[in-house]
Design brief:
154 residues; 3 helices
C-alpha cells in the first residue's frame, strides 16, 4: 500500500470534520455515518492493516505500543495529523488532548476494546486526558489530532 491511499481516504473524511466541534455529538455522527459497518470504516481498517504489515505504519515501539505518525497536520487534512498505534492488551502513556482527539478503534485480535469501547469512533474533547488502554485483545487505533497537538505527561 502506498500511504497515498490512506491519505486520500482520510482526507475525504477530514474534509467533513472541518469546523465541527470535537465532542459527543461528533462521536455520535461519526458512528452513524462512518461507523463499524460503513465503507469508510472498512477501507480505513484495510489501509491501516496493510500499512502495518508493510512497515509504513507503526514503525516505532515503546512501552509495548507500536506507533507512528502517518501524516503531519495539513490543509488537505483540514488541519489534522494522523497517527496509528498497534496495541495488544497494554496501557499506553498518559497524555492530554490539547484540542481534542478523534479515535477510530479497529480490533484485530480477540474482542479488543480501546478505553472500554468496541470497534468504531470515540471522541475526546479538548482538555481531556487519559492512559490509552487496549484490553481483551489487539487493536489498531487511528488518531486524528487537530493541529497535531498532544501533550504527554512525564
Amino acid at each position: 500500500m502506498q500511504n497515498s491511499d490512506l491519505h486520500q481516504h482520510i482526507a475525504s473524511l477530514t474534509t467533513q470534520l472541518k469546523g465541527r466541534a470535537i465532542n459527543a455529538d461528533l462521536e455520535a455522527w461519526l458512528n452513524q455515518e462512518h461507523g463499524f459497518n460503513s465503507d469508510t470504516y472498512k477501507q480505513l481498517k484495510a489501509d491501516c492493516e496493510r500499512g502495518v504489515a508493510e512497515g509504513s505504519l507503526c514503525q516505532y515501539e515503546g512501552g509495548g505500543v507500536r506507533y507512528g505518525r502517518a501524516f503531519k497536520p495539513s490543509d488537505d487534512l483540514a488541519g489534522f495529523s494522523v497517527d496509528v498505534v498497534d496495541m495488544d492488551n497494554v496501557v499506553g502513556p498518559h497524555h492530554t488532548h490539547t484540542n481534542g482527539e478523534i479515535d477510530l478503534i479497529m480490533p484485530i485480535e480477540g474482542d479488543a476494546l480501546f478505553d472500554g469501547h468496541a470497534a468504531g469512533w470515540m471522541v475526546y474533547p479538548p482538555g481531556s486526558s487519559h492512559k490509552p488502554t487496549v484490553s481483551n485483545g489487539r487493536a489498531l487505533v487511528l488518531y486524528l489530532l487537530p493541529n497535531g497537538e498532544i501533550s504527554f505527561t512525564k
